[in-house]
Design brief:
alpha/beta; 400 residues; 8-stranded mixed beta sheet; two-stranded antiparallel ribbon; single chain
Amino acid sequence: MATGNIEKREKITVLSIDGGGIRGIIPGTILAFLESKLQELDGPKARIADYFDLVAGTSTGGLVTTMITAPGEEGRPMFAAKDINNFYFEHLPKIFPQYSRFNFVKAITNFVGELTGPKYDGKYLRTVINQKLGNLTLKETLTNVLIPSFDIKLLQPVLFSTNDAKESTLKNARLADVCIGTSAAPTFLPAHYFETKDESAGETRTFDLIDGAVAANNPTLLAISHATKDLLKYKNRPILDARHMLVLSLGTGESKKEQKYSAAKSSEWGMTTWIYEGGKTPIIDIFTDASSDIVDFHVSTLFQSINCTSNYLRIQDDSLSGDAASVDIATNENLKKLAEIGKDLLKEPVSRIDVETGRFLNVEGEGTNEDALTKFAKLLSTERKIRTQHINSSTGDHIL
């Protein structure tokens, strides 16, 4: 965990990762590049979790968050960033099995199943997550995490965080349950139920969860608010505004240029068509993109308003199309295509969202996303060195 005395911290560091199913390969590619730059600066053992005070992730972003912050051997992160995509390539085809249209029986069975239940049964996802994470709980993550989900019984968001878990046994859920809950996308995967218990108080809390994208597909604003809330606990806290934050926000891609839907066509749609139309999921595409973009509008304005644009880096591709824009077409060909999109995105110019058009516009003079990440790695490394020089060995003060 990024440590050091509160009063010696120059900036609070935040990493946020969007939801997007198989498109988690895109931020996985970007994180691998960032970690390689940190290793060039600070040695081969450097890991993402060493540099961020808070890592937030929704749905597939929640899985990535857990992979890079859950303790593995010798108390180090279970996954290096370079291993994220290897995990996805190995397991996504089994989480989202694809049926050839030539396999008539399988295709019909799958279609009927979609009408009466989720598209995928989620059994393999639950198995592999439970095998990897076992009984590890939220309070054991190597830096602070924030993972949103949505409770359909209470009809309200649920925010799972390391700090809350440390303060309340009832909030200290198993990481496996949190990951399954945040990725339980409606129509794709079944909702997830689990309980937490406080034996000493004789209390039980229940959770009836679906995908965190319902609440916040882009959890950047939640992460900033969470960091602010936690700072209020400290007497000698620094003033927290955009000048005292480093925020990296990673999208999983959008398909704005494809222009999938139109009012002329959708005006005749019924309830089922809004859920599923021509292999696409209109209502899900709409609410996830809207959720992601409105957060980016807000956070971009926050940093631009006091001329601190370099403290906020959002990397997003708005030009996905076809299978690459899906959340579940986990063919080997499509997964490779997403990895290439991630690599190409690194070479693209830094861009920021235009609040009028919703499109990402290139920013003159800031180079490529690769250049920006290299600079960001230097800022993270410098911040960590400042903290290391001022560690109070007697108190082990933590800011979040």
